[in-house]
Amino acid sequence: MLFWTILFFLASQHMVYQEHVIISGICGFLNVPCSQLVPCATSNNACYQPAHICVNHPDCHNLPLCYPLSMTTREICPPVQYSKLIPNIPVDARWAQNGVTVAGGHGEGSATNQLFNSYGLLLDYDQTMIIADSGNHRIIQWKMGDRNGQAVAGGHGQGNRLDQLNNPSDVLIDKETNSLIICDSGNQRMVQWSRRSGTTQGEILIDNISCWGLAMDNQRYLYISDIEKHEVRRYQIGDKNGTIVAGGNDIDADLNQLNVPRYIFVDQQQTVYVSDTYNHRVMKWNKDAKEGIVVAGGQGEGNALTQLSYPRGLFVDTLGTIYVADWGNHQVMRWPEAAKQGTVIVGGNGQGEGANQFKAPVALSFDRHGNLYVIDEYNYRVQRFSIK
């Protein structure tokens, strides 16, 4: 017997996050007893077990319970959509200045407790880190508190087989299909890799693309930066061509141009933020805009508070505050909306291996508590900085 249930997420009560809700539903088999279902997290109705989704179960007093996706059927119902949680960090928030190593930190290498020139970082609801471990040609998953990670895509040497990757630069989770979408940079292709157990290879979504950074909005549009065409395109899943949403007007520093766009962030209004790396600035492109707005840097390469040096990873909270990995200055900066200069929030103590130092910070993310995570590229580690 099948049932239809509404996927209803309650408003978050957590001070750090604002929840943007999408109502959808799933069809599933009604032979899972209520007693075997785990309640959703009370703070944000998230499910921290892999491959589960929070539903109001009609036969369990409409309680928000975590339902296994393995018991759903996509053939009968529309795809599942998820809400997206975005940090809403106080503008005057501070972080511990000494980071704690939560992944890697054992030198360059390919062991499961090591990283090698990692580029992409994301955190799942349960604070599991998904890392594009580029130099090891793999995507590695690192659960909080574990001493070792686990390769979840690639990890079979450098190559172009469907079970291999070649210098992957970024990764995101497609919640609808419970899969990873990966920029397989060295192979100039986008691949999708199921997170279900037993998966041994990926599927090519787009090829012949010089991809680097990835983002996905709540309508499930995929955004990809192209470092050879100096543009960002938006794609529907299955679309091979996409639409230019930033750059695409040759290489230079005019407001309608980009110069090696690396990382991207997309907000709820489909505004695209781009780390315009070789122009040493972060650009904001409103939806359907013909040119961008400089929102950080743009004063040439340098270490003044008005400048950036080869910016990489970036994150934007609900207040419009921009957090950017200032790669060449070995620090992370915060730029409030409309600010003329930024502030250093961690790092900025010279290049080094200390707990308060970086050696080329390349990607960053926040967990649901507001703690900051940074890939420290040439120290081969991920550092966590606790919010105070």
UniProtKB/TrEMBL annotation:
CDD domains: NHL
GO-annotated biological processes: proteasome-mediated ubiquitin-dependent protein catabolic process; protein polyubiquitination
MF annotations from Gene Ontology: ubiquitin protein ligase activity; zinc ion binding
Keyword Transcription set for record: no
Annotated Pfam families: DUF5128, NHL
NHL repeat ranges, renumbered to this chain: 307-332
Signal peptide: 1-18
Keyword tags: Repeat, Signal
Gene3D superfamilies to which the protein is assigned, alphabetical: 2.40.10.500, TolB, C-terminal domain
Record keyword Signal present: yes
PANTHER family named in the record: E3 UBIQUITIN-PROTEIN LIGASE NHLRC1-RELATED (PTHR24104), PROTEIN LIN-41 (PTHR24104:SF25)
Name of this protein: Uncharacterized protein
Species, as recorded: Rotaria sordida
